[in-house]
């Protein structure tokens, strides 16, 4: 990878700090542990009932599409037909919170399965263009758009937050160093600030 | 120096020093290496591929067949760089290639003397016998003599990357057509990418003295570029070659740093772009063709349009005395413009009897002699280096001579339609243009300008504007046709002409591969007349330039020989890449340790802190063994680890196993269909070992599946098959049995899983579970699976499972707790001497116990082969059941799973050894099977093995020969049951 990567071990998270030419700061990547995560899969024939329950019980518009739905600190993104990743803004028993959906869906605890990476900055899209094979132009991938895809051979789910070029990635935990290496290799050119958010 | 008074477009205030073959020169910013060499009157730049003939610079662009150099040095050395496109930078260091001892005096040019023997088909005819001579004698000799430069011998220190781009309209080429197309689409608001391979956009506008919109062509180009740069919806990519058209995307290479001595910090050398474009317009221009005549490869013989480029764009006279030789009007324009720029153009030689009166008048006014109905029949040159000194001419029946140090030739222009062929479209011959024009184009791609065979500048501008407008309109943008700038029209008359008959000396068609007109004659005589055969027999067009300057001439000469038309003769088509693409850029970041991502287990840092040695298992890094101070070889360590487990307790991270969560009322029924054995009857709180087959009846995977609740199961798969099994289950649910109410979720990443094994493992477990959790033999019996908490409230799944054959447990906790669990188990087991072990010890113990693993689950073994025949239920259907009953799969003579021990306990077994009946010859006809896994058993004190043997279980007690010719092993082994310890499983259940 880049000169920056040549000296980084493949088995350790790159340290916090700036990567790239001195004085440049084009992208920030904040790594964080999601407070609570679960996967939700509609039971056979249970999609409509699940959507209704989500609306009534959680106030969540569970779009069966690669989109972000958000209500009351709960974010859901469609990852496949009838499947979602649910992310809570605070720690706690997400499965219990989702219990009203249980008759219509399988709920699987995944809090430890993923790390989160929030990427923003004026060169966020330039960095991501080196790994994401999707058109991230706001016209094609507007705020709230989500995708489950592959970046530098790492499976990811991500969405675009409202606002300027801010993307949140969920990356399988065992791949977190590999993904961070992708970020450093691709972002150093623009000045990448890597931050582990507590 | 041969710089002209006018600067052209180079910046004479910025002087750049460079070296060629160790000698220092200087050029200017805006030069290519070729223009700078010509400015320094360096005419001999390389030796040809086969005959080592002296060669100079033929062209001024990517079509260059001759001026190939080694650029840079050391680990950045880059062979076969075309000097005509290498942008000059300060400190550039280049060397000629394919010469020894020096460029001017080359020993192997003697090849030229034996040229009569090195013609077409030479290799095929000469080196047929004896076959062994090819590898040992001929090939090395040929490789030494032939050559296209030397690759660097150490790793490339630069890095490369890949990127994706998206646009409405991709415009390929920023010449007059491309600029107009980009302006039209860009002004309409379409997202436009304008890619140009040159470092200066403008194409021929930079090389021809034309007026566009009242400005010199290059000024118009610069103004257009400035406007495009100001449009936020337009992305300009210079130094970027679009090299291929693929399905729904275009491949391009951006040479980010090739024009710099070394890339700027954190910049890649090159970047590979995959461009998804809804529409594309190919505006790649055209390539001039040489004329085939004797001695046409001498340094000093070059393309007329290129000679014009050197004068107009680079301010360089290509010679002191320049003659032109042509069949078309463009060379006349070249001659006039060169003369106007101050080049001494003496003579215009045209094969045509008559030319337009205006051209003749202009030549007269400029003082250029005109010879019509005249052909160049030969050349003469300097004794050393061979550079051109004179021409032999033939006018009607009369011969003449003319002194010239440069011959600017033009046989007409070939549209650069390469990309139009990438989806299989065949070019179409246009008799009037004497050129191939695009046939069927790839979806969404149109062609404008000279690439389409449109040669008049006004028409080119109009065509580009029209297509840019049409592309944007078709995509829903309100596009208006831009105002067309006024320009003069350029004369383009041509009389098809290819080859000077009866000329003196070898007449080269393909200068890079040293293919002559005579070689085509040989191909004709020997029957290789179809274009594809001719190409392969003569190697015409097969060099790195893909025959840009030679293909059409070659076809035309073959057409003359066969008497067919060029259209009937047909053409070979172009495949990607358009120009050579470095392998580095195709790899991008994914090289060395980043070839693919490395997956780390939850306990990686903990294992590393204990000094573990890691091994790659698929993408995972797993602890292989944990050497202690003083242990010098892995076997010592592994023996210690195995003994410790069997004597007391050990632990290993098994998080890499695939883990799949299954929920729903039909999970039991589903599992019954995917496993050979029954799971619907499994009690809640219990786990069962299962074997899964592929549809063809062979084993796909094995593992344990536990029932956590009536409608909730969790399955484990082998590490290697985790993704494959998940995919298989998804397929079954989505396609085969959509009626089953079952949902799947991968939980491989959610759970860290640590196995503890050994007689004291229960004691250790009891110390990490929370108060009130009963792990006694009654509370957690063999194959029990329960959900409890450990380490003070951490959710955990406890399984009583064993791969080692000892009392054992697997403890799953959320992944972030994995390392804490490992530390807690180490602390809890301290008094028992708990020993962390790696996958080597795991392997030894499973071989001692006779469990199958990846080596045996090879995709070639059936359940019966592996001893699972009795597990297969006869009361239900399951995937693979029918096919497993095929006679071939059910044959008792099949290779089946058994154990092996050496008759002489001192012998080391080797996996891969083949079994032979004692006394039978060691050949494949007598092959009886092979050893799949071996280990040194510290328990038994000798090597043991598992393997697949014909009719194996019936042969227990028999001796067979284990033959390993690869590593020289050849000794007897005894067939035994595949369980070397505790065959009745008493240790597991206590």
Protein described:
The complex is a heterodimer of chains A (198) and B (990). Chain A is an alpha+beta fold and 198 residues long. Chain A has two domains: 115 residues, Gyrase A, domain 2, CATH 3.30.1360; 74 residues, Alpha-Beta Plaits (2-Layer Sandwich), CATH 3.30.70. Chain A is built from five helices and twelve strands. In chain A, a hairpin with a 2-residue loop joins strand 9 and strand 10. The two termini of chain A are 28 Å apart. The relative contact order of chain A is 0.26. In chain B, helix 16 crosses helix 21 and helix 19 packs across helix 20. Chain B has 990 residues and is an alpha+beta fold. Chain B contains 24 helices and 50 strands. The radius of gyration of chain B is 38 Å and the shape is elongated. Chain B starts with 10 loop residues before the first strand and ends with a helix. In chain B, a hairpin with a 5-residue loop joins strand 36 and strand 37. Chain B has six domains: 157 residues, 2Fe-2S iron-sulphur cluster binding domain, sarcosine oxidase, alpha subunit, N-terminal domain (Ubiquitin-like (UB roll)); 187 residues, FAD/NAD(P)-binding domain; 73 residues, BFD-like [2Fe-2S]-binding domain (Arc Repressor Mutant, subunit A, Orthogonal Bundle); 113 residues, Gyrase A, domain 2 (2-Layer Sandwich); 89 residues, Aminomethyltransferase beta-barrel domains (Alpha-Beta Plaits, 2-Layer Sandwich); 100 residues, Beta Barrel (Elongation Factor Tu (Ef-tu), domain 3). In chain B, strands 8, 9, 12, 13, 14, 15 and 28 form a seven-stranded mixed β-sheet that branches. In chain B, strands 41-42-43-40-34-44 form a six-stranded mixed β-sheet. Classes of the chains: A alpha+beta (198), B alpha+beta (990).
């Amino acid at each position: 990878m880049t000169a920056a990567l040549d000296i980084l071990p493949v088995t350790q998270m790159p340290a916090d700090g700036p990567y790239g030419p001195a004085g440049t700061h084009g992208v920030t990547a904040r790594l964080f542990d999601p407070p609570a995560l679960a996967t939700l899969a509609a039971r056979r024939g249970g999609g409509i009932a699940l959507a209704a329950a989500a609306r009534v019980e959680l106030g969540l518009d569970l779009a069966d599409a690669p989109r972000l739905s958000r209500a009351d600190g709960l974010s859901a993104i469609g990852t496949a037909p009838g499947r979602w990743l649910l992310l809570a803004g605070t720690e706690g028993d997400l499965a219990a919170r989702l219990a009203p959906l249980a008759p219509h869906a399988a709920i699987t605890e995944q809090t430890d399965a993923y790390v989160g990476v929030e990427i923003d900055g004026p060169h966020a899209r330039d960095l991501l263009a080196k790994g994401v094979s999707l058109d991230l132009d706001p016209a094609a991938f507007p705020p709230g758009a989500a995708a489950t895809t592959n970046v530098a051979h790492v499976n990811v789910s991500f969405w675009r937050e409202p606002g300027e070029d801010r993307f949140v990635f969920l990356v399988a935990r065992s791949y977190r160093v590999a993904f961070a290496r992708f970020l450093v290799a691709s972002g150093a050119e623009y000045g990448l600030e890597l931050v582990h958010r507590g | 120096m041969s710089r002209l008074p006018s600067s052209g477009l180079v910046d004479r205030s910025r002087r750049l020093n460079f070296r060629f073959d160790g000698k220092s020169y200087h050029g200017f910013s805006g030069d290519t290496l070729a223009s700078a060499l010509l400015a320094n009157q360096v005419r001999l730049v390389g030796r040809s591929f086969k005959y080592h003939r002296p060669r100079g610079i033929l062209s001024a662009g990517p079509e260059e067949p001759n001026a190939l150099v080694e650029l840079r040095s050391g680990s950045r050395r880059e062979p076969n760089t075309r000097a005509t496109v290498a942008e000059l930078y300060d400190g550039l260091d280049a060397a000629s290639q394919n010469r020894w001892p020096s460029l001017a005096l080359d020993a192997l040019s003697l090849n030229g003397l034996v040229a009569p023997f090195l013609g077409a088909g030479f290799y095929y005819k000469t080196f047929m016998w004896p076959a062994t001579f090819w590898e040992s004698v001929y090939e090395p000799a040929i490789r030494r003599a032939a050559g296209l430069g030397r690759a660097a011998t150490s790793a490339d220190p630069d890095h490369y990357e890949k990127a994706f781009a998206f646009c409405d309209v991709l415009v390929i080429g920023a010449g007059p057509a491309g600029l107009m197309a980009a302006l039209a689409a860009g002004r309409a608001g379409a997202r436009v990418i304008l890619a140009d391979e040159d470092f200066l956009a403008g194409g021929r506008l930079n090389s021809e003295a034309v007026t566009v919109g009242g400005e010199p062509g290059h000024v118009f180009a610069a103004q257009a570029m400035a406007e495009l740069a100001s449009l936020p919806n337009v992305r300009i990519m210079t130094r970027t070659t679009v090299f291929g058209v693929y399905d729904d995307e275009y491949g391009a290479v951006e040479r980010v740093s090739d024009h710099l001595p070394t890339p700027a910090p954190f910049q890649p050398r090159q970047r590979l772009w995959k461009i998804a474009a809804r529409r594309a317009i190919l505006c790649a221009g055209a390539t001039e063709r040489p004329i085939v005549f004797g001695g046409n490869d001498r340094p000093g013989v070059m393309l007329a349009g290129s000679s014009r480029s050197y004068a107009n764009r680079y301010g360089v006279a290509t010679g002191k005395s320049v003659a032109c030789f042509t069949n078309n009007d463009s060379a006349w324009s070249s001659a006039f413009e060169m003369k106007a720029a101050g080049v001494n153009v003496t003579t215009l030689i045209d094969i045509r009897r008559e030319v337009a009166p205006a051209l003749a008048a202009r030549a007269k006014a400029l003082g250029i002699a005109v010879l019509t109905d005249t052909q160049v029949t030969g050349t003469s040159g300097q004794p050393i280096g061979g550079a051109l000194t004179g021409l032999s001419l033939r006018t009607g029946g009369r011969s003449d001579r003319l002194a010239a140090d440069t011959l600017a030739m033009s046989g007409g222009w070939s549209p650069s339609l390469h990309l139009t062929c990438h989806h299989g479209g065949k070019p179409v011959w246009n008799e009037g243009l004497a050129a191939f024009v695009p046939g069927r184009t790839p979806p969404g791609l149109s062609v404008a300008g000279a690439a389409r065979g449109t040669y008049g500048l006004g028409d080119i501008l109009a065509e580009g504007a029209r297509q840019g407008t049409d592309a944007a309109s078709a995509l829903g943008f309100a596009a208006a046709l831009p105002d067309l700038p006024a320009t003069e029209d350029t004369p383009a008359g041509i009389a098809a002409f290819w080859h000077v008959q009866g000329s003196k000396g070898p007449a080269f068609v393909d200068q890079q591969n040293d293919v002559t007109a005579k070689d085509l004659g040989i191909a004709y005589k020997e029957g290789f007349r179809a274009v594809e055969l001719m190409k392969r027999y003569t190697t015409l067009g097969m060099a790195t330039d893909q025959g840009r300057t030679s293909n059409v001439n070659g076809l035309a000469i073959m057409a003359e020989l066969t008497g067919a038309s060029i259209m009937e003769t047909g053409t070979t088509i172009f495949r990607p890449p358009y120009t050579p693409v470095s392998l580095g850029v195709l790899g991008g970041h994914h090289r060395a340790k980043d070839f693919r991502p490395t997956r780390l287990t939850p306990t990686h840092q903990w294992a590393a802190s204990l000094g573990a040695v890691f091994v790659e298992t698929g993408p995972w890094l797993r602890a292989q063994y944990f050497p202690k101070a003083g242990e010098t070889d892995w076997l010592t360590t592994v023996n210690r680890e195995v003994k410790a487990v069997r004597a007391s307790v050990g632990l290993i991270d098994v998080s890499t196993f695939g883990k799949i969560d299954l929920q729903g009322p039909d999970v039991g029924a589903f599992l019954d269909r995917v496993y050979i054995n029954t799971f619907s009857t499994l009690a809640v709180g219990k786990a069962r070992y299962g074997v899964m087959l592929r549809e063809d009846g062979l084993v796909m995977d094995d593992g344990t599946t536990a029932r956590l609740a009536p409608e909730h199961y969790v399955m484990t798969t082998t590490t290697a098959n985790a993704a494959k099994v998940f995919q298989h289950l998804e397929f079954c649910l989505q396609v085969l049995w959509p009626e089953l109410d079952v949902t799947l979720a991968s939980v491989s990443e959610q759970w860290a899983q640590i196995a503890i094994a050994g007689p004291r493992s229960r004691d250790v477990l009891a110390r990490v579970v929370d108060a009130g959790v009963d792990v006694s033999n009654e509370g957690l019996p063999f194959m029990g699976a329960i959900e409890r908490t450990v380490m003070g409230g951490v959710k955990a799944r406890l399984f009583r499972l064993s791969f080692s054959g000892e009392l054992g447990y697997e403890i799953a906790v959320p992944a972030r707790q994995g390392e804490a669990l490992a530390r807690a188990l180490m602390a809890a087991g301290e008094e028992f001497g708990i020993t962390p072990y790696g996958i080597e010890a795991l392997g030894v113990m499973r071989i001692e116990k006779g469990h199958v693993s990846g080596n045996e689950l090879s995709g070639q073994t059936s359940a019966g082969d592996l001893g699972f025949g009795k597990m297969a239920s006869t009361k239900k259907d399951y995937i693979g059941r029918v096919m497993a009953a095929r006679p071939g799969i059910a044959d008792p003579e099949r290779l089946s799973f058994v154990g092996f021990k050496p008759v002489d306990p001192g012998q080391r077994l080797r996996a891969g050894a083949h079994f032979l009946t004692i006394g039978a010859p060691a050949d494949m006809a007598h092959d009886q099977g092979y050893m799949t896994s071996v280990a040194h058993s510290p328990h038994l004190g000798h090597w043991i093995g598992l393997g697949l043997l014909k009719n194996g279980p019936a042969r227990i007690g028999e001796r067979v020969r284990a033959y390993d010719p690869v590593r020289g092993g050849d000794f007897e082994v005894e067939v035994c049951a595949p369980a070397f310890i505790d065959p009745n499983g008493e240790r597991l259940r206590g």
